[in-house]
Amino acid sequence: MKISTPRVSVIMRTKNADWVVGQALAALYSQTFTDFELIVVDSGSTDGTLDIVRRYPCDLVQIAADSYIPGPVLNNAIERAAGEIIVFQNSDVVPLDDGCLGRLVAAFDDAEVQAAFARQVPRPEAHAWVRRDYAQSFPAWGEAPPWMTFSLPLAAMRRSVWCERPFYEEAWASEDSEWGHWARSNGHRIAYVPEAAVMHSHNYTLRQIFGRRFVEGEADAFIYQGKARLTSAVTRAISSSVADIVYQLRSGYAGEIPVTPVRRLVYHLAYYRGHRLGEHRRARSLHDARIGQQVVLSRYGR
């Protein structure tokens, strides 16, 4: 008997996510759209993540933590995938209803759409600054803002366009932003699907903020190839702190105000330092993405 090929391949990356991966998988396997296979890539979980993952039908790939670089990991997973549409769902992303995946996939009924991404809604415990960022980046209707080119927590692309341009491997982070920037620069349409909503956010510590923003800055030096300026970082820290404080006062989160200037200063200075590293690597043709990865592992703990 001939086994049919699934239309969709879902790729989920995991590491020490036992606090949420069960919710993510339960929501995935409760979707009304069921024509999919699941590929899970785990990068060295030491908690109960793998026990939970093995309860669900999937192709489980295990790699060492120090070999995890997003671009190569995603490209290798897509090579294993059978579907014509590749869906990415992070292990800490929970679809909010059973029609979420179907709505995301339905975007490809339009032949001009080459990729699509979902709306992200912050968790109930999200800090005010996180809520403000998400409200700006993932509106409840209409189009996403220009800077949000593509976002992988829940997203999809045609396999054919990935074959045209796999994920870049020069830096550790922002593989989705880089791919989205390339796609839009080359005339490919990326659809924002606010009707496909997922719960996803993090209340990062200052240490985690530093690590994440450092590698995002490093990546942007490769993506946009500009130069970072310290004065711009300080100016952005001040302006975003003011915007955060106004939002906190209006929404009843005044208790968060004291830490706001420190948080935003770390946020923007880390990006500046990462960007300078990226500039240095580009100028000297240093293409080993593990340079940024080591910063992530030591400061961000991923």
What is the CATH first-level class name of the largest domain? Answer: Alpha Beta
Total beta-strand segments: 8
Our count of domains comes out at 2
| Uncertain segments | none
Per CATH, what is the topology of the largest domain? Answer: Spore Coat Polysaccharide Biosynthesis Protein SpsA, Chain A
> How big is the Rg?
19 Å
Order of helices and strands: EHEHEHEEHEHEHHEHHHH
Task: Classify the secondary structure makeup into a structural class.
Answer: alpha/beta
CATH superfamily of the largest domain: Spore Coat Polysaccharide Biosynthesis Protein SpsA, Chain A
What CATH architecture of the largest domain would you give? Alpha-Beta Complex
Main sheet properties: 8 strands, mixed
Strand content: 15-25%
Tell me the strand order in the biggest sheet.
3-2-1-4-7-6-8-5
The overall pLDDT, averaged over residues, is 93
- Number of separate helices: 11
Question: Would you mind describing this structure in some detail?
Answer:
- The protein has 302 residues and is an alpha/beta fold.
- It contains 11 helices and 8 strands.
- The termini are far apart.
- Helix 8 (206-223) runs parallel beside helix 10, helix 8 (206-223) packs antiparallel against helix 11 (290-300) and helix 9 runs antiparallel to helix 10 (260-283).
- The protein has helices at 21-28, 49-53, 70-80, 100-106, 128-137, 159-164, 175-185, 206-223, 230-251, 260-283, 290-300; strands spanning 8-14, 36-42, 59-62, 85-89, 94-95, 113-121, 154-158, 189-199.
- The protein has an 8-stranded mixed sheet with strand order 3-2-1-4-7-6-8-5, sandwiched between helices.
- It folds into 2 domains: 8-199, Spore Coat Polysaccharide Biosynthesis Protein SpsA, Chain A (Alpha-Beta Complex); 206-300, no CATH class.
- The longest helix has 24 residues, at 260-283.
